[in-house]
Design a protein that fits this description.
The complex is a heterodimer. Chain A is mainly β. Chain A has no helices and eleven strands. In chain A, the strands form two sheets. In chain A, strands 2, 4, 5, 6, 9, 10 and 11 form a seven-stranded mixed β-sheet that branches.
């Protein structure tokens, strides 16, 4: 998985609690992305980062925030988890920002009860 | 209407068959076309990348793009049980700090030995 780890790999939480997912890369790539994957919707971009402290919203950013204080780490926070945020979350990295160079991590399966 | 439409399958074929996977799209601004393969409980991995209309071949895989019809295809020759996976088409156009991927919902393929 191209030097990308995600933690935790599985998490069960309750509605209303904050949750933070971590993406860690060893490739020193500039660009990092968070996607969610749901049946019937495919993969959808939540937020992305184009450098340390530089982030922007994606297609489905409501209810999510991100932070990137170091090149290697990109955190996704669900401020107050809801059942609609039950999903599989994938981190991706890219050296150039081009779409032929995005490499995906193994995913985090999140269940919000 | 979704920007990218993909038949979810499932598609079941015998080993050795030729497989045809397809996506249609509505946004004529798309310039880059990708196919990803995703094994169960894993992250997507880039399989094929094309920029222009026409065919691109890589081993047993051929990607085809028809921009006039807004239609892309992936052909797998001599299919193997190891090809059993979900195949995702994805498209993007340049803009902003990074190219953003729009994914199809994926087609589940099973190759029977």
């Amino acid at each position: 998985d191209a030097g990308i780890t995600q933690s935790p790999r599985h998490k069960v939480t309750e509605t209303g609690t904050p949750v933070t997912l971590r993406c860690h890369q060893t490739e020193n790539h500039r660009y990092m992305y968070w996607y969610r994957q749901d049946p019937g919707h495919g993969l959808r971009l939540i937020h992305y980062s184009y450098g340390v402290k530089d982030t922007d919203k994606g297609e489905v950013s409501d209810g999510y925030s991100v932070s990137r204080s170091k090149t290697e780490d990109f955190l996704l926070t669900l401020e107050s988890a809801t059942s609609s945020q039950t999903s599989v979350y994938f981190c991706a990295i890219s050296e150039t920002g081009r779409t032929d160079t995005q490499y995906f991590g193994p995913g985090t399966r999140l269940t919000v009860l | 209407q979704k920007e990218v439409e993909q038949d979810p399958g499932p598609l079941s074929v015998p080993e050795g068959a030729i497989v045809s996977l397809n996506c249609t799209y509505s946004n004529s601004a798309f310039q880059y076309f990708m196919w990803y393969r995703q094994y169960s409980r894993k992250g997507p991995e880039l399989l094929m990348y094309t920029y222009s209309s026409g065919n691109k071949e890589d081993g047993r895989f051929t990607a085809q793009v028809d921009k006039s019809s807004k239609y892309i295809s992936l052909f797998i020759r001599d299919s193997q049980p190891s090809d059993s996976a979900t195949y995702l088409c994805a498209m993007s156009y340049p803009g902003g700090a990074t190219n953003k991927l729009i994914f199809g919902t994926g087609t589940l393929l099973a190759v029977q030995p």
